[in-house]
Design goal:
Layout: H1 2-6, H2 64-88, H3 91-106, H4 119-125, H5 133-136, H6 148-156
Biased composition (Low complexity): 42-56
Protein name: Proteasome maturation factor UMP1
Region (Disordered): 1-59
Length: 160
C-alpha cells in the first residue's frame, strides 16, 4: 500500500465530512467571529516541506480551494522526487533538496528593488514558466520601504 501512495499524482480528499458548531462573537450572538476562528483572508500559506509524510496541510484560509491547490503542488513534488529516487537513487532527490534549500536561504534583495523574486527557487522546482498571483500583484502599494539602507540594516540586524 505504501508504494501506491508514493506514486499518487492526485492528492487525497481532505475536505471535512462533518462540521462542528462554532461559537459566535461574544458581543453579537449569532454572528460569525472571523478573528477568533483564524480564517482571515490576509493570512499567507505556510511553507510546504518536502518530507515524505502524507499529513494534511493546515492552511489559515477561508477557501478550501487554496488547501487543495497546496496539497496538489505538494503531491506533485513528492511524486517527482519519488520518480527521481527510483530512477537515479537517493542521491538525486537529496541533492535537489539541498540545492533548493541553499537557493531559498541565500536569495535576498532589498524591498526598494522589488523584494525577493524567488526565480532561483522556481527554476529548481521546475515552475519557472508558471505565472502566479505573486508575479502580478507585487504589493507595491502596501510596502512602506523606500530605500536600500534600512532594508539592509534590518536584514543584517545592524544597529547604528
Amino acid at each position: 500500500m505504501a508504494k501506491i501512495q508514493s506514486l499518487r499524482f492526485v492528492p487525497t480528499k481532505a475536505h471535512p465530512t462533518q462540521t462542528a458548531l462554532e461559537t459566535s462573537a461574544p458581543s453579537a450572538p449569532g454572528v460569525h467571529d472571523t478573528l477568533r476562528s483564524r480564517l482571515a483572508q490576509t493570512s499567507t500559506a505556510p511553507s510546504v516541506s518536502t518530507s515524505s509524510s502524507t499529513a494534511p496541510i493546515a492552511l489559515q484560509s477561508a477557501h478550501p480551494l487554496e488547501a487543495r491547490l497546496t496539497q496538489w503542488r505538494d503531491t506533485q513534488d513528492r511524486l517527482k522526487m519519488e520518480m527521481l529516487r527510483r530512477q537515479f537513487g537517493i542521491a538525486e532527490p537529496v541533492r535537489r533538496g539541498m540545492e533548493l534549500k541553499i537557493a531559498t536561504a541565500g536569495e535576498w534583495r532589498p524591498a526598494a528593488l522589488g523584494g525577493s523574486s524567488g526565480v532561483h527557487k522556481d527554476i529548481l522546482e521546475g515552475r519557472d514558466c508558471e505565472i502566479g498571483w505573486e508575479d502580478v500583484f507585487t504589493g507595491e502599494l502596501l510596502s512602506s520601504s523606500g530605500t536600500v539602507i534600512p532594508d539592509s540594516k534590518q536584514m543584517l540586524t545592524i544597529e547604528i
